[in-house]
Amino acid sequence: MQNLSANLPMPKNRSSPPSPTRKPRADAQRNRERILEVARLAFTQHGAEAALDDIARKARIGPGTLYRHFPTRDALIEAVYRGEVEKLTAAGSRFASTMPPLEALRAWMLLFIDHVASKKLIIPAMDTVPGGSARLIEGARGLIHSAFVTLVQRAIGSGDLRKDTDPNDFVRALVGIFYTTAQPGWEPSARRLVDILIAGSRPTNK
Q1: 26-71: what fold?
Q2: 3-state secondary structure of 61
Q3: pTM, whole model, 2 decimals?
């Protein structure tokens, strides 16, 4: 009897190639980060009128890619500020995983002062979006507050700060520097305030 199987086509290898989706996602994330960094510098130097085509060129992307990520100038300005806040809060987690509690708290508070100083430069651009800089700052308040409280509570738990320390006292004191940035010498004063807050909250036997 004839072997019919000999005339049947061999089954094709149905294993699909590795999904290419991961690489474009990584590329898109890198593009986004590069856009935000270039845009931050542009808005700091030129205000809200910084040319978007120049931002795209310096970020080494086409204008179409820029607009896919950020359809409007307002969206880009908001994303720049939000990105800076997210980097600040991510640094809190990084410090907590690599430094002793009190060191991590102090390092993050000093970084927060740097954040305020850099934000001051971009506020003119932030004030052009609907609701102005006040809305953007208010929208990010929860992220900053959470990072603050987590680091203070960690230092309380380690015994580096007194058990009756209220994390919100740190938040109120340092966030208050937002209202002093128009005064000469506010930044060195704010850095001294960090050490005053920490020293005043240490246990008496430390």
Answers
A1: Arc Repressor Mutant, subunit A (1.10.10)
A2: coil
A3: 0.80
